[in-house]
Amino acid sequence: MAMNTSAATTARTMWALYEPIHAVAYFAPEARAAYEDAGLRGFWRGYFAGRAAPLGPVGPEPVVASFFTFAPAMVARALPDVWSLAAPERALELRRAGAAAALTRLLAGHEREVERAVEALVPRAAGLDGSGRVLAAANGALDFPGKPIERLWHAATLLREHRGDGHVAALVAAGLDGCEALVLRSAVDVPRAELQPHRGWTDQEWDAAAQRLTDRGLLAPDGAATEAGRELLRTAEAATDQAAERPWRPLPPEQVAALVHLLTPLTTACATALRFPNPIGLPKPTG
């Protein structure tokens, strides 16, 4: 089947716009304080509790599988113990409240734009097909909140987990495991210091993954990505974009342009809560 290049390009453009809106739930001080005030001390307890909560009180194995790039030992340090501090239902409340508080501050003065963004994004996010997409399906089973700022965050979250699930599938199809995906990415554009410590891999595990990539001809002996390695990543990214097309297919070019214009100031404001470079691989907004 021929790839719909226009829809795939739109999918990548939109990811860069809604990802910062979603990511405030991890990096903004209000979001971190919500978890810590509830007893989830340390960044990673809140992160794993909030992001995994839609899955229910799971152990580390489903989270290792669905989050993909985190070292199993790192996940196991948080799960399932966090559920004794905050059950999934409570963790969902904390992430909603933290994200809402952060967005309320970051998007002050943009209330009308938030309402218009909700009108545009909710139809794209509601009823997304969850086939083969565990995190998207789990979040899609949750009700949309009532307040516009919360609806905006929920819509952004559904879209990014939908895309993220497709990205994991693309990396698996490329024959990469979680650590290998990070090692190869670090040889192309995201520094190792932004990936390895934030995903919990030891130097031994990292070096072993690098050796496997070298044996496949994806890394040169000096650790630089070969052209084959770069092409593998390009192919995986293209497959990710294609898998994320569906919400954007109905939009004609003029509606895409209008949505980009609408979201750009919101994205720029939210990006002030993030750092660049970052382990997400998110580019700094240019608008």
TrEMBL record:
Protein name: SalK
NCBIfam families in alphabetical order: SCO6745_fam_HTH
InterPro entries in the cross-refs: HTH_67 (IPR054058)
